[in-house]
Amino acid sequence: MPTPCTSTASPATAPRWPDPEYGPSPAQPASACDLVTVPARQGLEAVDILRRGAVDATGPDPLAVGPVLHDDGCDTLGFLVPPGTADAWDVPGSTCVHSDGRGTVLVPQEGADWLLPPGEADPATDPAVLRAALGEAARLIEAADNRR
Q1: The pTM is what?
Q2: pLDDT tens for residues 10-27?
Q3: Residue 80, phi then psi, degrees to nearest 5
Q4: Cα(34)–Cα(125) distance, integer angstroms
């Protein structure tokens, strides 16, 4: 089970995603988290992998993915992960930014929206599960591209 988030990403540390100036939406009471950003193609594959059911020591967990943001240009996806994840994040092709810990409410900036809103998903995606899903997604994409 992922650790719930306790602080939020700030616009200064995660440009284009969360921005408190747009105000909270009642349907989006997000917790604060670090944010892992990946290219949309890989991120969508990872969401599919996670939604199909991640398998861990206790068995399948179909809700293994937490809230996910997307930009309106469909270039990137952002996965909310527990605070502190950025300290050890090293997955090629992705970035992870720290939350600022000031307790601002996480809402999408103009030009972004929720793919999986808070409240419809776990509080945050487990970083180890996300790392595995991103790796599997990269392998699937490479295999598909090599078949052309």
Answers
A1: 0.72
A2: 333 333 444 333 333 333
A3: -75, 130
A4: 10
